[in-house]
Amino acid sequence: MSEFAKVIRSADMNDYLKKKILDAIGEMKFGLEQLERDVDAIRMPNSFFDPSEPRLIGHFVALALISQERVRLSAIEPTYGSGVYAIYYTGNEEIYASISATETPIYVGKADPPVGAKSIVEQETRLYRRLNEHRKSIDKVSGIDVADFECRALAVQSGYQTAAESYLIDLFRPIWNNETRILFGLGKHGDAATTRANNKSPWDTIHPGRTWAMGNREARGTEDILLEVARHFRLTKVFQSSEDVFSAFAEGIRMADRLK
């Protein structure tokens, strides 16, 4: 094995050959693991629970968030903490009819703590400030009313917010998140005078009103965006109840700790 490793390290290979060798090594590793299980008279369990596994941490933090009570976005008050949050729409606008008053958030996000923050006080009011920025943006624009939005927020130990946000985005595919690539732009903070030529975000096209975005040209027209939104809701699972959400979480945990 050591001689094989020396040959591989000394060989002059392009990226394609390196990938082929890595794929072959991966297959060999999988085959040896399977052989080990076949030879051992005692079977391996189907799953192995490791609380430190990053994917599972993301699941559990996200589950803790979804377990929080929903409150009106307009009624949030300053509190210490950084972490994760979800925003929900409950109004009557046709564009969001598919998710209105459901358990599918319109947007999820995270608020990172200051560098080195350990205690919840050291995290400052990052979570509240982020939600308050969104509240102000919604309150400034037309087509939606801040009174029609609710939110959940969860302060978490520094470092755990990123995995939770990723899991929430993958599960819900929220229409306002950048990752969905349709109606993004809520979190944009405005362009400097030197960058006014930037395109207007789809969010600002559908919901005009933020002063700094008014002079920017539209990257996509309203009709195209509305068609994409409608298509997204046809193809994306909408979670109607908390039971639907918890069922999806349970399935995600089963898959995350499954032994290959």
Tell me what you see in this structure.
The chain has 260 residues and is α+β, with helices and mostly antiparallel strands. The protein folds into two domains: 2-39; 54-256, no CATH class. The protein is 42% helix and 8% strand. It has eight helices and four strands. The protein has helices at residues 2-10, 15-39, 54-66, 126-140, 161-172, 202-206, 222-235, 242-256, and strands at residues 71-72, 83-89, 107-111, 149-155. A four-stranded antiparallel sheet has the order 1-4-2-3. Helix 3 (54-66) packs across helix 5 (161-172) and helix 3 runs antiparallel to helix 8. It is globular, with a radius of gyration of 23 Å. It starts with a helix and ends with a helix. 28% of the residues are buried. The mean pLDDT is 88.
SS summary, helix count: 8
The count of domains is 2
Strand segment tally: 4
Helix content: 40-55%
Q: How is the main sheet built?
A: 4 strands, antiparallel
The Cα radius of gyration reads 23 Å
Q: Given the helix and strand composition, which structural class is it?
A: alpha+beta
Give the amount of beta strand, in percent: 5-15%
Overall body shape: globular
Helices and strands, in order, run as: HHHEEEHEHHHH
Please state the average pLDDT score. 88
Give the strand order of the largest sheet, numbering strands 1, 2, ... along the chain: 1-4-2-3
How far is it from the N-terminal to the C-terminal residue, by CA?
25 Å
Uncertain parts: none
